[in-house]
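User: Hey, quick favor. My workstation is busy. Could you predict this chain's structure for me?
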Amino acid sequence: MSGRTRYAFSTLGVPGLPVAEVVRLAVAHGYDGVELRAHPEEPVHPGLGARQRARVAAEFAAHGVSVLGVAGYARVADPDDTEPVDALVDLAHDLGAPHVRVFPGGRGGPDDDGIAVRRLRTVCALAAERGVRVLLETHDSHRTGAAVARVLDRVRSPSAGALWDVMHTWLGGESPADSYAALAPHLGYVQVKDIASAQDTAPLPLGAGVLPLADALAALGGGGWLCWEYEKRWYPEAAGLAGLLTAGRERLAALARP
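Assistant: No problem, here it is.
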């Protein structure tokens, strides 16, 4: 990757926080952008009307904070998944976000790749029209960079790409260098986090756990977006994200420095 490294955090770390407060945190702690968790229990989701979407976009724009992406829960390799990716693409467009996150969610069978390929191809025309890129996250049935790249190599569209979650590729036994080599032709941005072990994935401050963040950032070579996905929503006993944001950004900046 090249250019300036930019920093974002996911609203998964501040569940239910109003948009104005999310923007305030980004500004106060020096973050360039925010990844918005698009779920009905959050302030931003596909059910928002046009006026609400416009207000959200205006709030971010007024403070110079980017909406990096809309993190949806569509599972494109699951034949029974019903979450419409089109709705996520429209939401991202209306918010000025360049990315939509989707999961694989396959069942571990031989048809998983083909299902994901067909579903991603179906949404690519709309994504291109809306100026949005749909990113398949390294997660669940396609945990490694190699697995996600295998799907995207078949989709063959600039409107489909990859979201590299460094925890899942590590849990999948893939080195950061190998993950980056597989994902580089498709990479949208990178989600960083830290955990105590493969058995204890509760979120920790960046640098306090075992994930190979230094190796991942070295593989990236600087530039692009780094998004801290602190999973407070799933671990309510974890420390609050707000008090960790500045130190986390500084940690990433130190690791990203050539």
